Amino acid sequence: MEQPPVIRLIDSDVRPLAETMARAFLQGPNFVYTQPDEARRRQTLPAMFSCFIRIGQQVGTVYTTDERNGAAIWAAPGRHAGFIDSWRAGFLALPLRLRFSAVVRLGQLGTHLSSKRRALMPEPHWYLMALAVDPYQQGKGLGSHLIRPVLTQADRAGQACYLETFVRQNLHFYEKHGFQTLGKCTLPNGGPTYWTMKRLST
């Protein structure tokens, strides 16, 4: 099936894409853990993904389509979001939108994942922060289309890639693209289970 052209998101109008990502991740275990109330989660996820997209633009790259029906957000090798990046992305304003419990859990989740990634991937690597496809477009190959540009770039440069997924069914998808499972982990204090995956250049 022919796919729409994949483009780098370079403009500042991130809201349409954030809304697509919010629909895709509405039932994601990590976001359900952060905000168990679905109505509240539906209301606040677009703002959260607006921040994620802006972070991706600052420390890596964001691939999408003209229709904004999916996105792959990558952090480039050696790039990490610092305080200034977070401030520019709008993360410091998120506590005004989220409940205190959601802010605490979001912080714990981010800290845990960052620590695990540093331990498993000490070498420079591309980090797939998020891959999302609009629920109405899933199963048509768009996800593969969105991650292909960076995978190709990583292969040319001899660079590794890394990701986490909170959905077991995603493992086969990523394995088809050369990722191998490093391990299965569970967030402490009743958090969700996730899998870490690594891809070496081919």
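That was protein one. Protein two is written in the same sequence-then-structure order:
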Amino acid sequence: MKSLGKSINWTLAIAVITLVLAAIFSIVSTFMLSGVSWAVGMGIVLLIVLVGILFDIIGVAATAADEKPFHAMASERLKGAKQAVAITRNADRVANFCNDVIGDISGIVSGTAATYVVIQLALQLGYGENSGQQFALSVLFTSVVAALTVGGKAIGKTLAIEHSTAIIYQVGKVFYFLEEKMNINFLPNGKKKKEKNSRK
């Protein structure tokens, strides 16, 4: 029951976070796309796709990484090593946030942004709204975005598995900076889990 309660709390928390982040992504992307040419809009769409791929890589790397190398780094007092340990110990939550929350939001927002770009391009080419040409452009552009997303994530997963230690250590460095310079702590340090393991 205790684990079920924690699961429910995490689910509710991640639902709220998703709601807030989705709103932020939508507002920012809409603001960035407002008044820009279709070429710039296409670049923004690709940027959103890259964000989704990047976070997917982090999520996969978190589940693939072993925490032992990070303990060795921590013993040498390397910055970010302790944070990397925390990431591996909370791999399920990290993967859930990176793959499901950011990944899904990026997919939805990139789709919406792609539709806006198609409309801008169709108008610039002189095609009427709901015309066959606009429909063809929409299918083509949406297909390209989908192919880049799926292909990028496929390559990213391979990189994440093969270089999980290096990737998570770099993320750990980012977390270290946020904790030390901005006093923002995203993950527990896992001491309780360590103590439990030591008692067994």
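The helical segments are 2-33, 38-64, 68-75, 81-89, 91-124, 132-162, 164-182, 191-199. Keep this in mind for the problem set.
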